[in-house]
Amino acid sequence: MQRCSLEPVAKLSQDIIRLIGQLEIAAKGVGLKQVLTTYKISQNKLATIIGISHSNIHRWVNEVVDPAGDSILAIRDALEKINPEAAEEFIRLYLDKTT
Predict the structure, then answer these.
(1) N or C: which end of the chain has fewer CB within 10 A?
(2) What is the pLDDT of residues 2-51, one digit of tens each?
(3) Integer Cα distance of 21 and 30 in angstroms
(4) How deeply is 60 buried, as exposed, middle or buried, from its count of CB atoms within 10 A (0-12, 13-18, 19+)?
(5) pLDDT digits (tens, 9 = 90+) for 37-80
């Protein structure tokens, strides 16, 4: 009797998990991009208020990386200073994408 290797199945499972993670990152980046566009907030302005490089905002908006938990709070706080409605919308979209 020939033994069947489970390695291809394990590899496929890892690939699926990685893709799901990428989709979650994309969803969060799209939410931030939508808020910045809707409320006419520049990436530079948001970065300046948070106190980080605009390249960080660029990477989040363009779905390169996902903002960490403390960064989500910093984004919310900065948006609150710029436009409280934008902050509310960001959190609504962020929570909607993570549930």
Answers:
(1) N
(2) 666 666 666 666 656 555 554 454 456 778 999 999 999 999 999 999 99
(3) 14
(4) buried
(5) 999 999 999 999 999 999 999 999 988 888 888 899 999 999 99
Sign of CA dihedral 66, 81, 88, 38: negative
- Of 78, 41, 77, nearest to 61 by C-alpha is 41
Tracing tokens 């979209």 back to the chain, one arrives at 93
Q: pTM of the predicted model, to two decimals?
A: 0.69
**CA dist 53 to 44, 71, 91, Å?**
8, 13, 22
> Which residues are within 8 A (CB) of 76 and not within 5 positions of it... i.e. 6 or more apart?
87, 90, 91
CATH number at 7-98: 1.10.260.40
Query: Which DSSP symbol is given to 65?
Result: S
